[in-house]
């Protein structure tokens, strides 16, 4: 689904609408994420809520399957496989009364200059090894998809509620609804990206979006740094949990929780620092435990905090919440849809589907790496250092894209291939093709 849909949209769209239509796919994805978050918030109080969520997800899937049955095949795919009459019929059904003969001749002309280097991965590898232009396009496409994930987007989408609770919003239902508000930003600002993609262009939109993402990651890190500095101090604990010095570090661990002094009745095995005797009432100890309570029943009066610290001030939390909203707004305008739009445009016909599949695989592998390491990074370093790390990756990616990301607005898929004939080309200059791919 993920590689096929943007590819199909790009191949059936006219050049002046291609960016908008491919970005529309991302809009619907972010819309689905937002409405799923809202349903999760509504159903969060029900013990069977997760069952309802799984059942509701089947409804749009069935509608999409039915819609697929009425779609014509991609004309470019039909031309590539020698089905001329079927390609004419497909173009006629898509373009209507509009003259499409020039478009058809352009597809056929590209095909005559391409020799089949083989299908699938073997053909793509042959093209990459023999032709620098294909190599540049594939590297750019994979870097875009990897950078999209290493900016930390799915950390925010997957762990949004956890991040909001770490910011000081401790009530679980409030955190879930705030997560829905943050997801709304991703959905709404994708409309902005759709509006700008064929007006501003892919290059400016991507670079501007990434610049905003970089700044917001720095702000997020700064917000969490202030939250940690203001966090209640830890004056002791049990086992490995005793190593933490602040409540923020304690609850960031997946196996420790915080118990304030006011709720403390430590058993003999608890190591409590002497400074605790003169500590403020907001200080406490760090115990091993779970969300249900400490492993050692020594935190009374409902004072146990496992996912978030007791609030001393809401100011850092509000800054973090605002930064999350703006971060997703910046991401949604460019870095959300543009990697998919650009990947659907930049490859020659003979390797297009395989190259897009490769870039999509890079996206999902990067997604897996980021989502699996987020909590471990927080525990090994800190929350603020983790977001600053994402910001550093975004900065490196920004520098790379400044020199290697071309503008493809308004070009046909065949003309875009010419951009990559020139090393470091960022604008289209007609060149004589030097390859028979």
TrEMBL record:
Catalytic activity reported: D-fructose(out) = D-fructose(in); D-galactose(in) = D-galactose(out); D-xylose(out) = D-xylose(in); D-glucose(out) = D-glucose(in)
Residue ranges crossing the lipid bilayer per the database entry: 21-43, 49-71, 137-159, 174-197, 209-227, 315-334, 355-378, 384-403
Membrane disposition: Multi-pass membrane protein
Subcellular location as annotated: Membrane
Major facilitator superfamily (MFS) profile domain ranges (all copies): 1-409
Listed GO MF terms: transmembrane transporter activity
A Gene Ontology cellular-component term: membrane
A Pfam entry, by short name: Sugar_tr
Keyword tags: Membrane, Transmembrane, Transmembrane helix, Transport
Subunit field text: Homodimer.
Family designation: Belongs to the major facilitator superfamily. Sugar transporter (TC 2.A.1.1) family.
Protein name: Hexose transporter 1
Organism of this sequence: Aphanomyces astaci
């Amino acid at each position: 689904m993920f590689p096929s849909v943007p590819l199909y949209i790009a191949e059936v769209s006219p050049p002046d609408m291609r960016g908008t239509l491919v970005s529309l796919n991302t809009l619907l994805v972010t819309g689905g994420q937002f409405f799923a978050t809202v349903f999760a918030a509504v159903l969060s109080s029900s013990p069977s809520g997760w069952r309802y969520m799984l059942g509701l997800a089947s409804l749009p899937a069935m509608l999409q399957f039915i819609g697929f049955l009425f779609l014509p095949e991609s004309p470019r795919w039909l031309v590539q496989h020698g089905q001329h009459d079927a390609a004419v019929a497909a173009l006629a059904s898509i373009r209507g009364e509009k003259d499409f003969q020039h478009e058809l001749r352009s597809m056929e002309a590209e095909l005559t200059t391409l020799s089949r280097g083989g299908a699938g991965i073997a053909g793509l590898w042959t093209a990459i090894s023999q032709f620098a232009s294909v190599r540049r396009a594939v590297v750019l496409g994979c870097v875009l998809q990897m950078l999209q994930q290493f900016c930390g987007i799915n950390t925010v989408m997957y762990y949004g509620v956890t991040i909001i609770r770490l910011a000081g919003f401790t009530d679980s239902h409030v955190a879930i609804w705030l997560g829905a508000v943050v997801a709304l930003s991703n959905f709404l600002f994708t409309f902005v990206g759709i509006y700008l993609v064929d007006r501003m262009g892919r290059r400016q939109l991507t670079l501007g979006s990434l610049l905003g993402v970089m700044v917001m990651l720095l702000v997020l890190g700064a917000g969490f740094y202030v939250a940690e500095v203001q966090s209640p101090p830890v004056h002791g604990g049990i086992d490995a949990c005793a190593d933490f010095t602040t409540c923020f570090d304690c609850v960031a661990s997946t196996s420790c929780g915080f118990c304030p002094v006011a709720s403390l009745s430590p058993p003999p095995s608890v190591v409590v620092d002497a400074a605790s005797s003169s500590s403020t009432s907001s200080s406490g100890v760090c115990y091993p435990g779970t969300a249900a309570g400490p492993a050692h029943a020594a935190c009374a009066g409902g004072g146990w905090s496992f996912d978030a610290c007791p609030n001393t001030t809401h100011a850092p939390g509000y800054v973090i919440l605002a930064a999350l909203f703006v971060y997703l707004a910046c991401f949604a305008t460019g870095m959300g849809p543009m990697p998919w739009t650009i990947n659907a445009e930049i490859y020659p016909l003979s390797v297009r589907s395989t190259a897009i599949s490769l870039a999509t695989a890079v996206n999902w592998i990067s997604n897996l790496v980021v989502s699996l390491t987020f909590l471990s990074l927080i525990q090994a370093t800190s929350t603020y250092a983790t977001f600053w790390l994402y910001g550093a990756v975004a900065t490196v990616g920004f520098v790379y894209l400044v020199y290697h990301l071309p503008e493809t607005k308004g070009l046909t898929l065949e003309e875009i291939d010419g951009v990559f004939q020139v090393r470091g080309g960022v604008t289209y200059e007609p060149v004589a093709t030097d390859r028979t791919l």
